[in-house]
């Protein structure tokens, strides 16, 4: 038996009132493998614990198979949880650890047949008489999974189960988890901050930031059509190239996006998505280009929809099967503030913090400076290095713009990373012709929302 899990406007707050999870709604179908993805501290594990009944839900509703379950105790939810730290009893053998929940559920029954069947499924028959201290990390994780599987629960809840394993073993156990859950057909909610795990395991991926659900979709849909800058930058290796651009749409000439020293000319006739960019005339936008959207080739080799740039080689990363080339194109990188941070910047424009009693003069001056800076943001004053944040404008947290210059943000060499084959010979300082495929061009507004491709357009995922 497997089950459907539905969250409706679920929120969770702790001591100071800040919402760890903010009005999250999510429907998980029976037998689905859903991955909760986001940076550390974004509320993923809290969501998982609320589903399991280990955390109370402050606001909103949880439904299990359509039945209200907010007050249902964990023991009656028929779920099994796999923790990050294995959580094995050190004084019990692997056999006893796997059989422990079975003995609790049915004290008079012999758990041995189910334990043996689970051990065969996981290939750990030879580990049943060993204690946790005698097992490697991967073996302990298999025992922990066996303890969850032996109960034949209606749902698996996995809280970063692979984060304590080395890279090689992590890839192996990841494949085992995928094969096992599909074989059992049990609803699985999997928490991770590793986007490669999310993309390879999940039927769908739910991306969180600051307790707010950013986007839910298949791995391919989330990668190919991100809702905002945060999703675009968080998913994908290497990270998407984000450049500051300025839309120029004269009535008597071609539409272009200026990238600083160079520009991208949009091919005519304009596609529907590019036509919609006319409303951004004279506005600064964020241009997103995946590394595979740019190739090294001369302008004479351009295909339909490709436009030329030139780049200066600054750094080469040899990956064996490919090379990542870092180019300097004279563009201005769009530095998204606190991209990896769990929560948006806490300061809110236009909201003056209450002065703490006993505050020093320096603290009051800093507070006053913050209020003045917030006022400048409200007026849209131009500042060097100002870039957009990613907060959903429908949420209480408004947009906060970083005043730090882009050069202060640590970044890799160059402003454009291009993926190419290892047979292309390049050297540092070489001037190289590039072709940009504008069919794979992302454009985001200053609030981080995607405006191109049009939000109404959906990719054909059957191609």
From TrEMBL:
Keyword Signal: no
Domain ABC transporter per the UniProt entry, residue ranges: 5-235
Alphabetical list of Gene3D superfamilies matching this protein: 2.40.50.100, P-loop containing nucleotide triphosphate hydrolases (3.40.50.300)
SUPFAM superfamilies: MOP-like (SSF50331), P-loop containing nucleoside triphosphate hydrolases (SSF52540)
Name of the protein: ABC transporter ATP-binding protein
InterPro entries in alphabetical order: AAA+_ATPase, ABC_transporter-like_ATP-bd, ABC_transporter-like_CS, ABC_transpr_MalK/UgpC-like, Mo/tungstate-bd_C_term_dom, P-loop_NTPase, Transp-assoc_OB_typ2
GO terms for MF: ATP binding
Positions of region (Disordered): 340-359, 371-414
Claim: Transport is one of the keywords in the record: yes
Pfam families assigned: ABC_tran, TOBE_2
Annotated keywords: ATP-binding, Nucleotide-binding, Transport
UniProt feature, compositional bias: Basic and acidic residues: 371-381
């Amino acid at each position: 038996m497997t089950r459907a899990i539905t969250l409706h406007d679920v929120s969770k707050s702790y001591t100071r009132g800040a919402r760890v999870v903010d009005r999250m709604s999510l429907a998980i179908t029976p037998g689905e493998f859903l991955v909760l993805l986001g940076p550390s501290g974004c509320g993923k594990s809290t969501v998982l614990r609320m589903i399991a009944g280990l955390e109370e839900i402050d606001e909103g509703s949880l439904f299990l198979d359509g039945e209200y379950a907010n007050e249902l105790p964990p023991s009656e939810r028929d779920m099994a949880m796999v923790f990050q730290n294995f959580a094995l009893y050190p004084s019990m053998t692997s056999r006893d650890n796997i059989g422990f929940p079975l003995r609790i559920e049915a004290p008079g029954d012999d758990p041995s047949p189910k334990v043996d069947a689970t051990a065969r499924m996981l290939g750990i028959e030879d580990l049943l008489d060993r204690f946790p201290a005698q097992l490697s990390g991967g073996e302990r994780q298999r025992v922990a999974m066996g303890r969850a599987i032996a109960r034949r629960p209606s749902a698996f809840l996995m809280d970063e189960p692979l984060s304590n394993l080395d890279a090689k073993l992590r890839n192996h156990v990841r494949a085992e988890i995928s094969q096992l859950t599909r074989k059992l057909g049990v609803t699985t909610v999997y928490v991770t901050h590793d986007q490669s795990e999310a993309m390879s395991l999940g039927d769908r991926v739910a991306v969180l930031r600051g307790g707010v659900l950013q986007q839910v979709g298949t791995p391919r849909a989330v990668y190919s059509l991100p809702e905002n800058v945060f999703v675009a930058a968080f998913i994908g290796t290497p990270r998407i190239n984000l450049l500051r651009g300025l839309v120029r749409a004269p009535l008597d000439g071609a539409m272009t996006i200026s990238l600083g020293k160079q520009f991208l000319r949009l091919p005519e006739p304009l596609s529907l998505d590019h036509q919609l960019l006319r409303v951004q005339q004279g506005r600064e936008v964020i241009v997103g280009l995946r590394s595979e959207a740019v190739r090294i080739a001369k302008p004479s080799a351009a295909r339909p929809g490709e436009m030329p740039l030139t780049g200066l080689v600054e750094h080469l990363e040899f990956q064996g099967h490919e090379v990542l080339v870092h180019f300097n194109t004279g563009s201005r990188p769009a530095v998204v503030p606190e991209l990896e941070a769990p929560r948006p910047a806490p300061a809110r424009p236009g909201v003056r913090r209450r002065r703490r009693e006993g505050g020093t003069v320096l603290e009051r001056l800093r507070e006053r400076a913050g209020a003045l800076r917030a006022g400048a943001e409200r007026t849209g004053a131009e500042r060097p290095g100002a870039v957009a944040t990613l907060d959903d404008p429908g949420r209480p947290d408004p947009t906060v713009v970083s005043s730090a210059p882009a050069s202060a943000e640590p970044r890799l060499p160059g402003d454009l990373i291009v993926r190419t084959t290892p047979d292309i010979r390049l050297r540092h300082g070489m001037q190289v012709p590039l072709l940009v495929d504008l069919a794979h061009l992302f454009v985001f507004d200053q609030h981080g929302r995607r405006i191109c491709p049009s939000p109404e357009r959906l990719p054909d995922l059957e191609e």
